[in-house]
Amino acid sequence: MTDAVPTTPPSPTRPATQAPTRPTTPRHVADAYVAAACELDPILATQLGARPDDDRLPDLSPEGLEAEVALVRGTLAELDRVLAENPALDDDPVERRCARLLRERLTAELDAHWAGEGFRSLNILFSPIHAVRQVFTLMPTATDEDWAVVARRIARVPEAYRGYRETLEEAVRRDLLVAPRQVRTVVQQLDEWLAGPFFTAFVASGPEVLQSELLAAAAAADGAVADIRDHLRDEYGPRTEGVPDAVGRERYAMAVRRWTGSDLGPDRGLEEAYAWGWAEHKRILAEQRLEADRVQAGATPMEAMRLLATSGPAVEGAEEIRVRLQAMMDEAILELDGTHFDLAEPLRRVEAMIAPPGSAAAPYYTRPSQDFSRPGRTWLPTLGRTRFPLWDLVSIWYHEGVPGHHLQLAQWAHVAQELSTYQTSVGSVGANVEGWALYAERFMDELGYFPDPGTRLGFLDAQQLRSVRVVIDIGMHLQLPIPDDAEGALAEHRGQPWTPDLARAFLGENSGAALAFLDSELVRYLGIPGQAISYKLGERAWLAGREKAQQTRGAAFDLKAWHMAALSQGSLGLDDLEAELAQL
């Protein structure tokens, strides 16, 4: 296949009014890539708020994977051409950052392609199966015309899943398989989708005039979900028996680069991160013990968290907790705007949502469309619960909403025209995004937003989870030895390599979360290697960057100005983030 060479439209979210031209700057190359990627992947276009009438779904077959990699190769070649023709572009900080980000991100994607990772895209959060369902929660449904687009797109779900099945079949032929644990868990998720069933339930609120078309399309889509579930359970799954959960050093280092924008593999960078994660675990544990004693004299952290979960303040009802979380974000915007942030009007709107059944257990955020016609949204999976203790929700909603993911990703959308759509959306680096959200939690602690022992223990519990993630994610995939000062269930296994069972025991001893959440977390770490460590490593870079900026500017350091400058840089990988933050 000939490599696709992108051309530059006026904007990836607006139709061209004249013939496209060849890019002349890295930002032009980046936005041309986004426009071409939206053509290949209409789900991406919906996420950005582009092409609202596009009813297509991506080609999830091996041919679709080849088309994506051809675009990547063509874009890298075009970037080389642009920089060779005008070396002075490297003197422009915005162009330099864009070029570095684009090259690093696309090179990482290319490496993953050659390693066959596209054929292993099956996990509980980010697989094509999940992307096809989630796109419908992002589509506009205000008018009959909107619903007509929904109906046409739902009708394409069977075709999309057939393409994905071809990829799974090719994965079997190439022996590029995921571990059985991932297959079993995805099958369980699909069972939950079918209990609704999801698509039929989703179209129930559509207009009466389209109900016949919507219901027919939904029935076929739900049938396609059942087909892909049966294929995973009965055909693909048995072929995965014996595939290990751990991916090994080479694949893990490659995955870490994709999630962090940093190469921790060639030397002992992963071991350093592992040791640092363990030190963070011990430091936070000492703080937890002090806070637990404030909750109940003499209580251990786990005893205090169990007490808070059963007897602490709680909200009854899914709609009631949604309203409470919405109010919390609205209050944070009012109190932080003008004092620690300067928020443009579009950033002041964010919606709390209840996640659909069959989602993974962790709360999540979906960013606004680039034009803000769809707001940023936080999503709470209920996992069948109707009672929601508050002690551990306050901190996580500062993480997901304000001042966490929402302020960063909505600000990126706000400044997209000054940078590039790529830098402010498609080129996101997990460690940058999750690192900011952890920084946001810690910043709220610095401001005194966890005044009572319960909510502060919830904040520390969230921090501890992210430290434990670093330890067990690296430990399991590299099978590193358990530290010599390990306690509890690990004490008799000191010096032995990590296993999933030991990791689950360690999680259970160091997190106040529900058992179902912890089970989901373990599957997540094993199925999405490297993603779990991006949170804490990203936070480390954000904190170090702020500290260096403070040291450089001294009394002239303005935290609000620093926040807004930092949030307006767009995406950066960890190879660049700390240094760029220090210069602000």
Could you tell me the strand content as a percent range? under 5%
Question: Could you give the count of β-strands?
Answer: 5
Quote the distance from N terminus to C terminus: 44 Å
As a percent range, the share of helical residues equals 55-70%
> Strand order, biggest sheet?
2-4-3
List SSEs in N-to-C order: HHHHHHHHHHHHHEHEEEEHHHHHHHHHH
Count of DSSP helices? 24
Structural class: mainly alpha
Overall shape: globular
The main β sheet shows up as: 3 strands, mixed
Rg, rounded, reads 23 Å
Could you name the ranges where pLDDT drops below 50 across 5 or more consecutive residues?
13-19
User: What is the residue-mean pLDDT, rounded to a whole number?
Assistant: 95
Protein name: DUF885 domain-containing protein
Pfam families: DUF885
